[in-house]
Write a structure and sequence with these properties.
It is a single chain. This protein is α/β, with parallel strands linked by helices. The protein has 2 domains: about 140 residues, 3-Layer(aba) Sandwich (Rossmann fold); about 120 residues, HUPs (Rossmann fold, 3-Layer(aba) Sandwich), CATH 3.40.50.620. Helix content is about 45%, strand content about 20%. The chain contains 9 helices and 12 strands. The strands form 2 sheets. The chain has a 10-stranded mixed sheet with strand order 4-2-1-6-7-12-11-8-9-10, with helices on both faces. The protein has a two-stranded parallel sheet with strand order 3-5. α4 packs parallel to α5. The chain starts with 14 loop residues before the first strand and ends with a strand.
Length: about 280
């Protein structure tokens, strides 16, 4: 157990699960999962869910069988790419009503350290549905979840780490240290002061950024920090773009209110708005 002032727990990337449906929306996730597994020397489990239920199995078995064949074809294509890169990989095609439940269960059975999943478009109704889908997957998973937009690629420039001083942000800092060390990447630490913060809470935001900055610097990483005032999700996305970051890392929960129970609204807001991959770190 970590003592006060330390960061925990250890960030691991030894077992990676790629959740894919073979569509263009999974393209970014597939690229990133393969590259991450290669960089970390990790095992890769590739999962695609055959959506089914007992009634459909009886009423439309041919349709379910066709869906399963299509799923296995998708898995075979990604598996071949993984093996070509020298990765230790396996495929999984569970059946179930809710794909998010099945993916989370598969990740738990595989003891995955991170689930890599795609992200759909964000216009109109899809914007709200995106938030719901992201929340469901992150909420159900017992491990970290990396959400990758269609056009996202593996990070090679800079990591932006958002911190609010919570346990979840400490875990995100540990994961960031691992990622940055592997890729020899600089890190920008950002902490946001909301307009509603008291002076004490604003001081805590600055203290959180300084503490994480010291933690990363002590590990030989190139680090800078910024403390800004305003809307957290918008400022995180804007700062990532301004600093040319190509990965955002943050905890899944905030410090107060419903954000203790639900997936953090700031995390989902960032995922909805940024064109970058976002690693949502859980405890």
């Amino acid at each position: 157990m970590a003592t006060e002032g330390q960061l925990s727990p250890l960030g691991r990337f030894e077992r990676i699960m790629l959740a894919t449906d073979g569509s263009e929306y999974s393209a970014g996730a597939e690229r990133i999962a393969l590259a991450l597994a290669e960089q970390c020397g990790a095992r890769l489990a590739i999962v695609s869910v055959v959506v089914s239920n007992p009634e459909a199995e009886v009423v439309a078995p041919d349709m379910i069988r066709a869906a399963e064949e299509e799923t296995r074809s998708t898995l075979a294509g990604v598996y071949e790419r993984a093996v070509t890169r020298g990765l230790a990989a396996e495929t999984l095609a569970p059946r179930g009503i809710d794909p998010y439940t099945e993916i989370a269960a598969a990740a738990e059975a595989q003891r995955a350290d991170v689930i890599v999943m795609g992200r759909r478009g964000k216009r109109g109704l899809a914007r709200r549905m995106l938030g719901d889908a992201t929340s469901r997957m992150i909420g159900k998973a017992h491990c970290n979840v990396l959400v990758a937009p269609e056009g996202a690629d593996f990070w090679r420039t800079r990591v932006l780490l958002a911190t609010d001083g919570s346990r979840f942000s400490d875990a995100a800092a540990v994961a960031t240290a691992k990622i940055a060390a592997l890729g020899r990447l600089p890190v920008t630490v950002i902490s946001i002061v909301r307009e509603s913060f008291t002076e004490q809470r604003a001081a805590e935001a600055d203290e959180a950024a300084a503490r994480v900055h010291a933690h990363l610097s002590a590990r030989g990483l190139e680090v800078d920090k910024v403390v800004l005032r305003g809307d957290p999700a918008a400022l995180i996305v804007e700062t990532a773009a301004a600093r040319a970051a190509d990965l955002i890392v943050m905890g899944t929960h905030g410090r107060t209110g419903w954000e203790r129970v639900l997936v953090g609204s700031v995390t989902v807001g960032v995922i909805n708005e940024t064109p970058l991959p976002v690693l949502a770190v859980k405890l």
